[in-house]
Amino acid sequence: MSQFPYDKEDAICALATPWAQSAIAILRCSGPDILEKLQGVFKSSKPLDSWTPNHMGYGHIINPKTQEVLDEVMAVYFKGPKSYTGQDSVEFNCHGSLPGIEAILEVFHNRGIRRASPGEFTFRAFINGKMDLTRAEAVQEIVSARTSQAQSLALNRLSGVIFQEIEAIKDLILTLNASVALALDYPDDEVEPPPVDEKAINQAVLRIDQMLASYKRGKLFQEGVTLALAGRTNAGKSSLFNLILKEERSIVSQIHGTTRDYLESTVTLGGIPLRIFDTAGLRNSQDPVEQEGMRRTGEIVDNAQLVLLVVDAQVGFLQEEQDFYKKYKEKTILCWNKVDACDSPAPKAAIAISALNGHGFPLLEQALLDRIFKDTPPVESPVVIDSQRQKELLETARFGLLRFLEGLNQQLPMDILSEDLRESLNALGEITGEVSSSDLLELMFSRFCVGK
Q: Do 207 and 169 meet the contact criterion of CB atoms below 8 Å apart?
């Protein structure tokens, strides 16, 4: 830990709210000597160290050199170790004036309170035993959540469900320690070791499998899905785009080639963030601008996870649309649009809709959800992961357990088998941070917001 770039003994401060003009801004300060460094900067009716912890009080932040009042603020003193970081901490609610905030931060800097690096407050919480690494990851997942479902899942992880599950799995593996240790300490049949409890290992593997099975669904709620609307000009893509967004975002016109570039927006569908692209219409055109729009359409469709191919029911399913559908069939839903204006029956594979009046739209939404969750079965466990790091470490732990069972059946020496168990336990320990490297911690916490 000594080489880690964060110095946990420094006094640090940061703006915990967005760097933008606002009614209220929150400045966080933390460190073993933070109260001493704030003396002469924060003035109130009594010194901070005599305040009742976790209670809000009133005061002023001043420039100690000029005695100029920089802001009148409300403050909360959190006495370590009963604080977010585990150290003495103070949070100031000040006015959201950017020049005012900058002036306060400058005064803090002159008092030896440096500006915090990204994730430094949460790092201190981890290093001081206030949370394990899975809870620390959940903090950032809550901040970056784009839907209420993603936020709810991250909040569940913050409560410690992953830590508790990992500890339960470790306990199952540690039940083997008596058998393995005895076999290692007394080889050559001096003592008959107790039989290895294969049931415990199988149960540990099962619980790991359940966590791994939740990964795809967890990633969906956190990262979402990209959806491209494609089709010929004037097929109704822009109308469908507006219908999905429930707002007039895209220009709708009877003139061909109105959308020459793509439009992009995001909505939530079934708790999943849906990033939608309304693309330029497909048609032969000599207009270089329209040609560039169609080139970009090709790139978007290639990279999209799902595609809605919008076909004008009044015109029919033309050859170029059929070719497009064959090429992208695995990720494409066929939309037979404008059924309000004609009686043309929809192909068997298509969903009949009217982007104008919303006919068939609930069926289309359900079809989208079915495609999104196609390869992600419902999660039976309350523990849902979305961290690539956690997934890879769980796979390492699982592999070590399966290799142990295989070696046991092959009657391999116990000293070799014990290495497989140690590898599994180390991998599980890395998930919670019980086993960790400075490089891992730096990579993880550097992705956090400043002030978190």
A: yes
Number of residues that make up the chain: 452
Instruction: Give me the residue label for tokens 């991998």.
Output: 427
- Name the maximum alpha-carbon separation found in the chain: 91
* Euclidean distance between CA atoms 403 and 406, whole angstroms: 5
Distances (CA, A) of 392 to 389, 424, 431: 5, 12, 10
Q: How far is CA 240 from the centre of its chain?
A: 29
CA 213 to each of CA 1, 37, 192, 347, 425: distance values in angstroms, whole numbers, following the listed order: 33, 50, 39, 36, 20
**From the CB of residue 169, how many other CB atoms can be counted at a distance below 10 Å?**
25
What letters, b where the CB count within 10 A reaches 16 and e where it falls short, cover 255-275?
Answer: eebbbbebbebebebebbbbb
Of residues 212, 208, 214, the one with CA closest to residue 424: 208
Q: Is pLDDT at 257 greater than 80 in this prediction?
A: no
Q: Take residue 312 and report the two structure tokens written for it.
A: 């004008």
Give pLDDT tens digits for 275-292. Answer: 999 887 776 655 665 556
Residue 379 in tokens: 């999660």
Query: Whole-angstrom Cα distance, residue 280 to residue 290?
Result: 8
Q: Measured between alpha carbons, how far is 279 from 309 in angstroms, rounded to an integer?
A: 11
CA 379, distance to chain mean position in Å, is 18
Q: Which residue has the tokens 């009742």?
A: 52
Residue in 136, 86, 124 with CA at minimum distance from that of residue 8: 124
Q: Which two tokens stand for residue 423?
A: 């590898």
- Rounded-to-integer distance, Cα 16 and Cα 130, Å: 19
Closest CA to 28 of 10, 13, 39, 42: 13
- What does pLDDT average to over the chain? 86
User: What are the start-end ranges of the H helices in 328-412?
Assistant: 361-372, 388-409
Residue 130's alpha-carbon distances to 7, 103, 126, 158, in angstroms, are 17, 32, 6, 12
Residue pair 162/134 in contact by the 8 Å Cβ criterion: yes
Cβ(131)–Cβ(125) below 8 Å: yes
Question: Picking from 42-56, 173-187, 342-356, 376-390, which range would have the lowest pLDDT averaged per residue?
Answer: 173-187
Mean pLDDT across the stretch 156-180? 86
The pTM of this model reads: 0.81
